[in-house]
Amino acid sequence: MGRPSLAEQRRKQILKAAAQSVATHGLAGSTQERIAAAAGMSRSHIRHYVGNRDELIDALWDHVITPYFEAMHAALTDRPPDAQLRALVDFLFGPQMARNEDDLVIEALISGAMHDVRLRGRIYDSYSRLEREIAKTIREAVPGCESAESLQLAYALVCMAFGHSTLAPLPFPASRHAGMKALATQMIEALRADRAGQAARP
């Protein structure tokens, strides 16, 4: 029997090294040589297991952003629509979104995207998908909610959640953190009340 392929193991090793490099040296300072050295490999190994620099950056983006999508899906699975919406707010403003080293990587990639149209499109696709998934959760929990308003509220929740996460390390009072979650809930309840009021009108 042949030896099992080490490709997936090597790929994870490279992406972990790439994340650590970008968190420490930024995107521009994370050369393939530096990443290869951190991974204990050669540059040719990087190209073999992951690809060229664009492919490496794409893979790194997936490496850091996918766990957030997976965690959000896990938080919503097997819940009725209204409970999904509450779980969504808990997730967006809960410990799952706490600051960690991956945030430094995400921020470096977003910053790099300002000068890289291809990367900008890649990152936009992910956040646009997140916006659509949140909007779908809103529509399923709020009868009568239209697509445009669910997307608007979803975008507001994404901005609030990521802004909150970015500022979380600063010594703001605990009331600020609780207040963001409460405000998100109020926005959802205001939409629910408005839709219910419209449905009740003759």
Automatic annotation (TrEMBL):
Record keywords: DNA-binding, Transcription, Transcription regulation
SUPFAM superfamilies: Homeodomain-like
Binding region for DNA: 31-50
Ranges for domain HTH tetR-type: 8-68
InterPro entries to which the protein is assigned, alphabetical: Homeodomain-like_sf, HTH-type_TetR-like_transc_reg, HTH_TetR
GO MF terms held by the record: DNA-binding transcription factor activity; transcription cis-regulatory region binding
One Pfam family per UniProt: TetR_N
Descriptive protein name: HTH tetR-type domain-containing protein
Organism expressing this protein natively: Planobispora rosea
